[in-house]
Amino acid sequence: MTATQSRGVARIHAAFEAAQAQGRAAFIPFMTAGFPSAAAFPALADTLLERADILEVGLPYSDPLGDGPTIQRASEQALEGGTSTRRTLEAVRELRTRHDTPIVVMTYVNPIYAVGPREFMRLAQEAGVDGLILPDLPPDQDLEIADLAAEHGLAVTFLIAPTSTPARVKLVAEACTGFLYAVSVTGVTGAREATALNEVPAMLALAREHARVPVAVGFGVKDAGTAHQVAAVADGVVVGSAFINAINHGQDVAALVATIADGCQK
């Protein structure tokens, strides 16, 4: 792997290592680009980046099958406000002028194909993106995207769920170069009761038999308690719907960010 190819991978892994050295799981907040508006997104991202080890930026898409109603509505709102693939990457570029924290973009494959895989990767690299989370791309079905990502210095992350077979977990774990994203429950994104996270330890034990990268858990984390429950067994904690819900209800997002980040202690 060349220096260029390793850039995103190295930065993401360094973020996990720094968190581990401090006795905590990496805090990975998610926010849909262009939400609650294109004008308001940069300041909101700044708030998340005050405590984030890695920021996950969602690329708005009209058919986000893996997302629950909260993130679906945020994506619809962002699209209605004019946020596109190119504007999402421009937003990342703008964040790069103020922050050195790793940034990964969560995107379905259709927006990549709409731009063109090679052009998309070029734009992402130029914007300062470190990696891609690909929720609807089976790693054994389209190697072009993963190969192009590596060529442009971007790490790739795929997902597993409690329903994933051992063979599937092995395939996905070995394909990840950034981190492995373990979905805590079967279904779509969204905050859930803590009891919904009970399947996580067994799933992570299986994942770690094959993963050569850190393992982060998302779907269901909504407060310090659920963050701590996940942090006890995972390398990273992904939180998204809780922040979008807070914005929609006029709550103090900065306070919630601090509370959940503190909950990521081991």
Automatic annotation (TrEMBL):
InterPro entries: Aldolase_TIM (IPR013785), RibuloseP-bd_barrel (IPR011060), Trp_synthase_alpha_AS (IPR018204), Trp_synthase_suA (IPR002028). It comes from the Bacteria. CDD domains: Tryptophan_synthase_alpha. Keywords: Amino-acid biosynthesis, Aromatic amino acid biosynthesis, Lyase, Tryptophan biosynthesis. Pathway: Amino-acid biosynthesis; L-tryptophan biosynthesis; L-tryptophan from chorismate: step 5/5. Its EC number is 4.2.1.20. Pfam families: Trp_syntA (PF00290). The active site is at 56 (proton acceptor), 67 (proton acceptor). It catalyses: (1S,2R)-1-C-(indol-3-yl)glycerol 3-phosphate + L-serine = D-glyceraldehyde 3-phosphate + L-tryptophan + H2O. Tetramer of two alpha and two beta chains. Belongs to the TrpA family. The alpha subunit is responsible for the aldol cleavage of indoleglycerol phosphate to indole and glyceraldehyde 3-phosphate. This is Tryptophan synthase alpha chain. It comes from Deinococcus aerophilus. The gene is trpA.
